[in-house]
Amino acid sequence: MSVTRLRSRPRVLEFFAGVGLARMGLDLAGFDTAWANDISPDKAEMYRSQFDDDVMVVGDVRSVDPAELPAGAALAWASSPCTDLSLAGNRTGLTGAESSAFYAFTGVLRSMGDEGRPKVVVLENVVGLATSHGGDDLCAAIREFNDLGYSVDLLTIDARRFVPQSRPRLFLVGSREPVDTDEMEHPLRPGWTETFFGDPTLTTHRATLPDPPAHVPAGLGRTLERLKNDDPRWWDEDRVAAFIDSMSEVQKTRLNQLRRQDRHYEWRTAYRRTRHGVAVWEMRPDDVSGCLRTARGGSSKQAVVRMGYGKVSVRWMTGVEYAALMGASTYNIDGFRDSQVQFAFGDAVAVPAVEWLAKNYLVPLVRGELAPRTTSEAAVV
């Protein structure tokens, strides 16, 4: 009788793990998280509530002892702090107080030595890393990985390809082994990436990948909770009136058009902005959420606007909605404050974006399936 040998799940070391949304995507793709770390006790509490294991270690990445990390990991994942890189932040870059934790992460990798270091590494961050200090910070990050023996690929994935939320993120995928390079254009490598791929001082590659799903055009309204009209979370009339009064004429015209329709409710999200020193509300024109954010970094949380049948109702977005828009509807948020959930999820990466990247790139990469083809293999193709 023949015996089918099952492939073991490649192991992951998860740095800056937050509440584990990256892990959810990696798990769905077939990875196994062997160790995780985050500095926030609140995020660690949510992480441990979600996952039935004890892999989470709470503490500053600068205090991580490489000798205590599980051996044999194929992938190191890092969703490092973006506060100093975000367009909504202070833009001090990789040398900023929080984003400099990136170098503490690579310091851990360096201390693991050539034999113990994972063959694949991923850095996930805001797209603002590409423009921070005129691109110098991204070059520095690529060089840091190059010094550790990794060739680096650059990809941008917007969560909107999977959920009705506009949330572009930058992914640096580093490989210690050669990768078959595709010089063709790809929707996940926008034109600006050519500056970095074309830099002869950087070691980069462009792996052959399938095209991702197209951006979803709508779906916010189907994702939001249906709170009853007497739910206290809806704002009172005076607050709604102040909300509308703060809008520009263009915004008011859009709102009134949607308010007058009487077939169904229309839903939008809105942010509070400061324009010329005055606080105003701006509403998105489409049935897609703006990027979920934390209050830290200069951005406010989003309000939900319901319009139709001659009425306008407004409230803050709920924790349940944050989870849904991050592709994490199954996440256990019971017992956690909305503010805790919103802060944690607004600081995270969307689950389906990670799952797509892992299934189509990371799993084949760690299994050696993206290695350069031999001359004979190329001839067969």
From TrEMBL:
Q: What class of enzyme is it?
A: transferase
Name the active site residues.
Answer: 82
Give an example GO biological process.
Answer: methylation
Q: Which domain of life is it from?
A: Bacteria
Keyword annotations for this protein, in alphabetical order, are: Methyltransferase, Restriction system, S-adenosyl-L-methionine, Transferase
UniProt keyword annotation of Secreted present: no
Task: Spell out the SUPFAM superfamilies in the cross-references.
Answer: S-adenosyl-L-methionine-dependent methyltransferases
Write the protein's name: DNA (cytosine-5-)-methyltransferase
Q: What is its EC number?
A: 2.1.1.37
Name its species: Gordonia tangerina
Give the classification, highest ranks.
Answer: Bacteria, Bacillati, Actinomycetota, Actinomycetes, Mycobacteriales
Q: Which residues form the signal peptide?
A: none
Q: Which family does it belong to?
A: Belongs to the class I-like SAM-binding methyltransferase superfamily. C5-methyltransferase family.
Write out the GO MF terms: methyltransferase activity
